[in-house]
């Protein structure tokens, strides 16, 4: 317990507090709001804040427009090709957003496929990918599954008798949807929207890749990396980001707390079969969604095999050289990713299980504090945690290492572990909750001691939950960019995400970067597939708050 | 609103090759309290949902007051339905829940307030208007569900196992209350349950269902006292069943040799049996029709058998015994045990019952 607290405080709470303190104190160490006043006085920062809010909200709005009809169709209708639609709808999750950004540049960018066609046919171009538009577009295509999955879960857990009762009372059609269905599915929708909003505002990779800097996350990054570690403004931006995340988290929690309807489902949800003209329309919609959500994947795949691709619709020459580059000449990116992410996932499983066990099975004081700190990373942007780490561990020789933690790759493993800890805590908590205490008690009454009970009864029952949580941690660590690019000590210690970022800086490296992107997609797909196998139909739960 | 009259005409519903409901014909008169009784999966809930309009039957027609209903959607039938899980909307207060149906009917605001108040008073829940369903106890939720349905003054009330989620004591209180309400309002009611005690206590008429078909329809007394077949005899109440063959008949009694080697005489008045010797029959004797006495001398009177007590369970108002005869076990109830000596396990006893209490369930 004490050890857990120590770990969480050293690697989560203290770094974040340190960032907060620097933003809130003057040179003499007194509490002050002067830095925040300065922040709001600078038009650049005001604009960055405004842009962040607007783009976050727009991403939520567009994602919702895309998700709601799809969610309704998936939850309420049975038709051929439904599985395809469901798969297509989760595909965006397997591509890291910054990789997607690069791919979409090739297709929708200024000299991308679509604009070349528009140029040829209509002598005009559309600025899909310019500035904020590009950021919103990429993030919408990447994050909409969060809303979709949550809404589907919410919709299909509405007891059919809720709607039948209303019909019995004379209510039907759209009115039925507005008065009964919509309010009942709102909790899931809000949860998904919140997740989307938080992920969108702390996404550093997409704006960096699109070279759009006037948002909070890239501002924090640029301040710290270019102006320097001692620049207070960087910390202030970080704090503003955290406050935004926390505010939206609390608002949603409050709302969800008010409206969490524990509808105990009595009968299976009613699904209707689709036929004829309606089926055709749904297929058309499926096709469109599939096409849109596959755009980035296709783009990145083409790029990874292309020798020359500029100002043409498709690559004009193909090569396997990029894969040779990343597999043989610079294999350390992939090796590092596997090493770091597996280590982090393993640590997460151990920490998550321990925390969940303490939360559910002990009466120790401060349990809830433990929970609160372990959940905090959900609302702490990667940039902020990384800044905190740099501040705390830089120039301080870590005991037993003989050098600052920031000069070793260990810092990356720690960052990943802490960033993904909430997932395994959640997964273990949920798994452990399913194990009724009477199962353990009956083992103990039959003569097994605490340790034996845990090993023989509890552990086997929660293993799948632990593994699933660890897989999610692994998958998301594989494509973590924000904290990575700030914390990588040397280029040869960088993982895939760092490699992609470095390669993409030069036009010549784009192919190799794309090849790494393909590897990342494969890794994430594999992880997601395994999660689905373990979680079964409840895979959507993994992406809930 | 005048209570409705319901006719169910040759209704059948299948899912794939499996018939959930088949060949059901019922007539439910105005003001009847009609119960569909059967084990789970017997089709009773499906039949109720067909009447409510949520399931379209594959065969047959439902008539309300003589009007064919099959293609009228649920929201135009003016049929009130109370679900087993109450289906109270969690995002609405008690008041909003009860007012829902009136708002759908575009009733004036002032009248809604008044009628919701009356409905809640009727079920004894005034003062809970602003609470959420989750803040109410199970029994209170049940009452809100009832009020919500009654407030729209339906011509027909459908109740789908409404008491099954309540604890035993509350269930019996609610049963009486339900009966009173139904009687006061004069509503035609169709009640679905698997609890035979409830069915007997509440109904004016009962239809026993099994395997999607109506096995027997009648008053509670008919169902209990003259079960039409083995299923009804065993499902409604407890019964000692004897399969056997006719030995001989005279004008008053039929003598039966059972498969477990007993000779039982049954009164013939109840049924018109012209059975030849050797004709197969099934007999039923209710546990409460059997008397026990201390053994002594050989039993010689009609329907007397010697056995010993294999098990006894004291239940307060009666004692339940299992009596081991040479080839089988019989079940008996001794009522009002306070004034009697209880028999001990292993004690030898004589078990007796009158020929009038032997029901010939099935012949042929």
Walk me through what this model shows.
- Chain A is mainly α and about 550 residues long.
- Chain A is built from 23 helices and four strands.
- Chain A has helices spanning about 1-25, 35-40, 45-75, 80-90, 95-110, 115-120, 130-155, 160-170, 175-200, 205-210, 215-225, 230-260, 275-305, 320-330, 330-360, 365-375, 380-395, 410-435, 435-445, 450-480, 480-485, 495-505, 510-535, and strands spanning about 75-80, 270-275, 305-310, 315-320.
- In chain A, the strands form two sheets. A two-stranded parallel ribbon of chain A has the order 1-2.
- In chain A, strand 3 and strand 4 (about 315-320) form a beta hairpin.
- In chain A, helix 5 crosses helix 13, helix 19 runs antiparallel to helix 20 and helix 22 (about 495-505) packs antiparallel against helix 23 (about 510-535).
- The longest helix of chain A is centred in the first third of the chain and has 34 residues, at about 45-75.
- The relative contact order of chain A is 0.13.
- In chain B, helix 2 packs parallel to helix 4 (about 140-150) and helix 3 packs across helix 4 (about 140-150).
- The two termini of chain B are about 50 Å apart.
- The longest helix of chain B has 18 residues, at about 170-185.
- With about 375 residues, chain B is of the alpha+beta class.
- Chain B contains eight helices and 20 strands.
- The model of chain B has no long low-confidence stretch (mean pLDDT about 90).
- In chain B, a hairpin with a 2-residue loop joins strand 4 (about 60-65) and strand 5 (about 65-70).
- Chain B has a six-stranded mixed β-sheet, with helices on both faces. Chain B has a five-stranded antiparallel β-sheet with strand order 13-12-11-14-20.
- The interface of A and B includes residues 159 and 167 of A.
What topology does this entry show?
The complex is a heterodimer of chains A (545) and B (364).
Chain A: H1 2-24, H2 34-41, H3 43-76, E1 77-78, H4 82-90, H5 97-108, H6 113-122, H7 131-156, H8 160-168, H9 173-201, H10 205-209, H11 216-227, H12 232-259, E2 272-273, H13 276-305, E3 306-308, E4 317-318, H14 321-329, H15 332-361, H16 367-375, H17 382-393, H18 410-434, H19 437-445, H20 450-478, H21 482-487, H22 496-504, H23 510-535
Parallel strand pairs in A: 1-2
Antiparallel strand pairs in A: 3-4
Chain B: E1 6-15, E2 18-28, E3 33-37, H1 44-52, E4 59-64, E5 67-68, E6 79-82, H2 94-104, H3 109-122, H4 138-150, E7 156-160, H5 168-185, E8 188-193, H6 196-202, E9 205-210, E10 213-218, H7 220-225, H8 230-235, E11 240-249, E12 253-258, E13 263-267, E14 280-285, E15 291-294, E16 304-314, E17 318-324, E18 329-335, E19 348-352, E20 359-363
Parallel strand pairs in B: 3-8, 3-9, 6-7, 7-8
Antiparallel strand pairs in B: 1-2, 1-4, 4-5, 9-10, 11-12, 11-14, 12-13, 14-20, 15-19, 16-17, 16-19, 17-18
Helix pairs in contact in B: 2-3, 2-4, 3-4
């Amino acid at each position: 317990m004490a050890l857990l607290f120590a770990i969480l405080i050293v690697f989560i709470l203290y770094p974040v507090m340190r960032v907060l303190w620097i933003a809130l104190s003057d040179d003499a160490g007194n509490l002050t709001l002067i830095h925040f006043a300065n922040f709001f006085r600078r038009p650049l920062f005001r604009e960055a804040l405004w842009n962040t809010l607007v783009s976050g909200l727009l991403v939520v709005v567009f994602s919702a427009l895309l998700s709601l009809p799809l969610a309704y169709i998936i939850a309420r209708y049975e038709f051929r090709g439904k599985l395809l639609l469901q798969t297509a709808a989760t595909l965006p999750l397997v591509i890291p957003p910054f990789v997607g950004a690069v791919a979409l540049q090739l297709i929708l960018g200024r000299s991308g496929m679509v604009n070349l066609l528009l140029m040829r046919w209509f002598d005009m171009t559309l600025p899909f990918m310019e500035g904020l538009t590009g950021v919103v577009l990429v993030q919408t295509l990447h994050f909409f599954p969060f809303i979709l999955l949550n809404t589907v879960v919410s919709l299909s857990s509405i007891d059919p008798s809720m709607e039948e009762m209303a019909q019995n009372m004379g209510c039907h059609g759209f009115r039925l949807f507005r008065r009964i269905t919509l309010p009942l599915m709102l909790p899931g929708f809000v949860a998904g929207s919140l997740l989307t909003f938080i992920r969108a505002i702390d996404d550093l990779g997409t704006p960096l890749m699109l070279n759009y800097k006037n948002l909070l996350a890239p501002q924090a990054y640029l301040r710290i990396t270019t102006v320097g570690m001692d620049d207070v403004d960087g910390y202030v931006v970080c704090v503003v980001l955290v406050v935004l995340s926390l505010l939206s988290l609390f608002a949603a929690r409050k709302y969800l707390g008010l409206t969490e309807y524990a509808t105990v489902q009595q009968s299976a949800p009613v699904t209707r079969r689709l036929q004829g003209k309606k089926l055709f329309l749904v297929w058309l919609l499926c096709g469109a969604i599939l096409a849109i959500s596959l755009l980035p994947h296709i783009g990145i795949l083409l790029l990874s095999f292309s020798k020359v691709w500029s100002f043409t619709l498709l690559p004009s020459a193909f090569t396997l050289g990029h894969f040779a580059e990343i597999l043989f000449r610079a294999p350390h990116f992939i090796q590092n990713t596997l090493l770091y992410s597996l280590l982090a996932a393993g640590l997460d499983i151990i920490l998550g299980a321990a925390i969940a066990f303490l939360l559910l099975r002990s009466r120790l004081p401060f349990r809830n504090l433990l929970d609160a700190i372990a959940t905090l990373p959900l609302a702490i942007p990667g940039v902020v945690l990384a800044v905190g780490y740099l501040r705390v561990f830089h120039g301080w020789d870590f005991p037993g290492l003989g050098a600052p933690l920031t000069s070793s790759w260990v810092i990356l493993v720690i960052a990943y572990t802490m960033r993904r800890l909430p997932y395994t805590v959640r997964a273990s908590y949920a798994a452990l909750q399913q194990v009724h205490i009477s199962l353990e008690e009956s083992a103990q009454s039959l003569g097994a001691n605490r340790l034996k009970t845990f090993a023989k009864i509890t552990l086997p029952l929660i293993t799948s939950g632990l593994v699933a949580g660890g897989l999610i941690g692994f998958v998301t660590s594989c494509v973590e960019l924000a904290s990575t690019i700030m914390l990588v000590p040397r280029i040869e210690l960088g993982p895939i995400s760092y490699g992609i970022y470095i390669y993409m800086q030069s036009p010549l490296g784009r192919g190799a970067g794309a090849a790494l992107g393909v590897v990342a997609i494969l890794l994430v797909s594999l992880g997601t597939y395994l999660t689905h196998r373990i979680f079964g139909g409840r895979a959507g739960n993994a992406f809930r708050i | 609103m005048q209570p409705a009259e319901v006719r169910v005409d040759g209704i059948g519903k299948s899912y794939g090759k499996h018939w959930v409901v088949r060949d059901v014909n019922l007539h439910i008169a105005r003001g009847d309290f009609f119960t569909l009784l059967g084990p789970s999966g017997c089709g009773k809930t499906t039949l109720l949902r067909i009447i409510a309009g949520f399931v379209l039957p594959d065969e047959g027609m439902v008539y309300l007051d003589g009007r064919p209903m099959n293609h009228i959607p649920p929201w135009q039938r003016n049929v009130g339905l109370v679900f087993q899980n109450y289906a109270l909307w969690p995002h609405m207060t008690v008041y909003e829940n009860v007012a829902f149906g009136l708002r759908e009917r575009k009733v004036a605001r002032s009248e809604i307030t008044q009628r919701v108040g009356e409905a809640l008073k009727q079920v004894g829940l005034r003062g809970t208007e602003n609470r959420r369903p989750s803040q109410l106890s199970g029994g209170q939720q049940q009452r809100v569900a009832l009020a919500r349905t009654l407030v729209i003054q339906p011509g027909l009330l459908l109740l789908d196992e409404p008491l099954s989620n309540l604890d035993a004591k509350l269930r019996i209180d609610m049963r009486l209350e339900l009966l009173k309400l139904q009687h006061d309002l004069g509503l035609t009611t169709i009640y679905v349950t698997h609890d035979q005690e409830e069915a007997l206590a509440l109904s004016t008429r009962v239809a026993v269902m099994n395997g999607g078909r109506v096995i027997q329809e009648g008053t509670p007394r008919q169902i209990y006292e003259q079960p039409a077949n083995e299923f009804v005899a065993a499902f409604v109440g407890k019964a000692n069943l004897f399969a056997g063959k006719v030995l001989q008949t005279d004008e008053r009694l039929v003598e039966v040799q059972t498969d477990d080697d007993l000779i039982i005489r049954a009164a013939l008045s109840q049924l018109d049996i012209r059975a030849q010797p050797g004709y197969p029959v099934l007999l039923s004797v209710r546990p409460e029709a059997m008397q026990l006495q201390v053994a002594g001398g050989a039993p010689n009177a009609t329907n007397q058998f010697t056995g010993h007590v294999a098990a006894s369970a004291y239940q307060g108002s009666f004692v339940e015994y299992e009596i081991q005869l040479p080839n089988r076990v019989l079940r008996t109830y001794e009522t009002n045990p306070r004034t009697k000596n209880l028999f001990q396990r292993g004690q030898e006893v004589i078990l007796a019952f009158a020929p009038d209490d032997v029901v010939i369930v099935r012949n042929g």
